[in-house]
Specification:
Structural class: alpha/beta
CATH superfamily of the largest domain: NAD(P)-binding Rossmann-like Domain
CATH topology of the largest domain: Rossmann fold
Radius of gyration: 23 Å
CATH architecture of the largest domain: 3-Layer(aba) Sandwich
Oligomer: single chain
Helix content: 25-40%
């Protein structure tokens, strides 16, 4: 007998409107497998309660009657109940200090924790993710931001002003349509000579970067290598109706400390302490930097406060906007001091004072760092996520979690993503213990 499945109301952010399982898939699972769903009532979820009810779910005030609970973002400590199974983005695998109390509470309550971020195939490729939608929304927001920032710089008629924040569009399709129109205008009329060459750099080449590039490709873009980027100005006669795209890989971002030539990717992953930042040489050549890569504290930062201060001491740089989709506070972009909210998405960091100011005005670097970017495209991102999760819902609900971990009859990808079993760290996640102390 399958456990009753709960879908929780998202409450970490005011504008978090996503759901991990959409009504269409609830209906299919109810009809095909007779699964029972409880959906916690919500006035803001992109799919109204009534649509879930029509799909066969019970709408409830709380999920005390559910044994397996699916969510999206972190769950308040007061929500957890003893011995239940929770599936959500817990953000604990890096030992994130702000979520260690959450993990401790789950351990005290004897809970099971399955984290979407850890659901991967045999090659380590993630199977269930919002990443592409973070890239899509991040690029839309960054183009909107560059329009607003250029207006501050004295370009009141720049074509990017026609682009809105991602959450202002009813669908991804509508956003793409408008950006394609802006692309057509740039193709026909060009951009001011002072802004040339107009360049967009992408760090990383995974799902986030793919999403961001999909939006950039709606403009009259041409992809060049990082080496070609460095030579663009020298060639002269830069066309005004071309936007140059550059994708940076690990070998462009870091180099060996000892100055040795060459770059070995596996060595970089295994011994990041041997490497230092080599990205700064590219920064003066970029108009927009889209930071789309994975980062943790073992790796060099790509833009530091010290470097930015040096850059601005030489006058206003070409770099106009950083779209920090990676959004690690004090991370790869050191002056991203926090993830921003959809309602207040950008800030200007002043490298001379070391202080950020929310909004588009002020001296310094404009940063867009919304940390729930997929929620700016809530319907599209929820549908894609639910589609990827669909095949795993029944096995997760079917499993008898009272059995020893080794005997759990879960799909391998789900079992690999189980951080807690009956309140204990599973073998692959024992390392988190040191962060709990």
């Amino acid at each position: 007998m399958c456990a009753k499945i709960g879908i929780r109301h998202e409450d970490k952010y005011l504008m978090e409107r996503r759901t991990p399982i959409v009504p269409e898939h609830v209906e299919k699972l109810v009809n095909k497998y007779k699964l029972e769903f409880q959906v916690q009532q919500s006035s803001k979820r992109v799919f109204p309660d009534e649509v879930f009810r029509e799909a066969g779910a019970e709408i409830v005030k709380d999920l005390k009657g559910s044994e397996v609970i699916f969510g999206v973002k972190e769950i308040p400590e007061t929500f957890f109940e003893e011995n239940k199974t929770y599936v959500f983005f817990s953000h604990v695998i890096k030992g994130q200090p702000y979520n260690m109390p959450l993990l401790k509470k789950m351990m005290e309550m004897g809970c099971n924790l399955i984290d979407y971020e850890c659901i991967v195939d045999d090659q380590g490729k993630r199977l269930i993710f919002f990443g592409k939608y973070a890239g899509l929304a991040g690029m839309i927001n960054s183009l909107w931001s560059v329009g607003q920032r250029l207006k501050e710089y004295g370009y009141p008629d720049n074509p990017f002003l026609k682009i809105k924040q991602a959450c202002q569009y009813p669908s991804l399709e509508e956003a793409k349509k408008q950006i394609a129109e802006v692309g057509k205008e740039i193709g026909e009329k060009g951009l001011p000579e002072e802004l040339l060459p107009f360049t967009i750099g992408f760090t990383g080449y995974g799902n986030v970067s793919i999403g961001a590039q999909e939006i950039a490709n709606l403009l009259p873009s041409r992809e060049i290598s990082p080496e070609e980027l460095m030579q663009l100005k020298k060639h002269g006669n830069i066309p005004s109706n071309i936007i140059y795209k550059v994708v940076f890989k690990e070998k462009h971002i870091s180099r060996l400390k000892d100055g040795s030539p060459g770059f070995d990717l596996q060595d970089y992953y295994q011994h990041p302490e041997k490497y230092v930042n080599d990205f700064e040489k590219y920064i003066p050549h970029l108009t927009i930097l889209m930071n789309c890569m994975y980062w943790d504290t073992r790796y060099p930062r790509i833009v530091t406060k010290e470097y930015l201060k040096k850059l601005f001491s030489q006058g206003r740089p070409k770099l106009t906007v950083i779209g920090d989709v990676t959004c690690d506070p004090d991370g790869s972009v050191e002056f991203t001091h926090k993830g921003t909210e959809i309602e207040d998405p950008v800030f200007v960091y002043n490298p001379h004072t070391g202080k950020p100011t929310m909004g588009f005005k002020g001296e310094g670097m404009l940063v867009m760092a919304v940390d729930i970017l997929p929620s700016e495209l809530p319907k599209d991102s929820s549908e894609a996520f639910s589609n990827a999760l669909f095949g795993f819902v029944k096995p997760i609900a079917d499993t008898n979690y009272d059995q020893p971990f080794k005997q759990l009859n879960l799909p391998p990808a789900i079992k690999k993503a189980m951080i807690l079993h009956k309140g204990k760290l599973t073998p692959d996640y024992q390392y988190i213990e040191k962060y709990l102390k």
